[in-house]
Design brief:
- The protein is mainly beta.
- It has one domain (33-192): Porin (Beta Barrel), CATH 2.40.160.10.
- The protein has helices at 7-25, 27-34, and strands spanning 37-49, 58-70, 77-92, 111-121, 127-134, 155-163, 171-180, 191-192.
- The chain has an 8-stranded antiparallel beta sheet with strand order 1-2-3-4-5-6-7-8, with no helix packed on it.
- The N and C termini lie far apart (79 Å).
Length: 193
């Protein structure tokens, strides 16, 4: 006696087999998600400025929360997303957007914005390719850096390729479209194209 398997059962089994094969194709993405790590950085900062020619002295007490996450690698590529949240507790200063022009400038304006949003790929040997809003610190950061002592760091929107194939030589080529300055997104001098 022959046993017949209903066509519906065959279809279900075939669907499950193809779903498993499909899921295996995305296993690197699933592993990268599992390897994700949170990025948490809180900083309370106080700054005073006594500037000649200004009617008042500036006093700032601000709290910055920099929150985000970075995934593990899938197909040699990781994803990073991070936001800046900056709250002033004492705001007797000119942040360039708060209208308090009688005070000296302390560029720590209240802001809520994307700090970094980037894809980083390491598929090519000795090479790192980063695309998106990123932190770039070259040498002593005199000309290109994140201005890390400010609450809202300076970041760059662009494409960066760093190669270290040759011994004692680093080739760093960057094209960036916009500089996101320390003054914040709402300031007239906050973005530089």
């Amino acid at each position: 006696m022959k046993t017949r398997i209903p066509a519906v059962t065959v279809s279900i089994l075939a669907g499950l087999a193809s779903a498993t094969a499909y899921a295996d194709g995305f296993q690197p993405a699933i592993s990268a998600a599992r390897e994700s790590k949170p990025l948490i950085d809180l900083r309370l900062r106080s700054e005073s400025v006594d500037q000649d020619g200004m009617a008042k002295d500036a006093e700032a007490l601000t709290l910055r929360a920099r929150l985000g996450f970075e995934t593990g690698k899938a197909w040699n590529t990781s994803f990073l997303a991070e936001g800046d949240l900056l709250w002033p507790f004492e705001s007797h200063y000119n942040s360039t957007v708060n209208g308090k022009t009688a005070y000296p400038i302390i560029p720590d304006a209240e802001t809520y914005e994307v700090n970094r949003l980037q894809l980083t790929n390491t598929s090519i040997a000795d090479t790192t390719i980063t695309f998106g809003r990123q932190r770039i610190n070259l040498d002593d950061q005199r000309f290109v850096g994140n201005v890390g002592w400010r609450q809202n760091e300076q970041t760059y929107d662009g494409l960066r390729v760093v190669n270290k194939t040759m011994k004692n030589v680093t080739v760093d080529v960057t094209y960036f479209d916009q500089v996101n300055r320390v003054f914040g997104k709402d300031s007239p001098v906050g973005r530089y194209k």
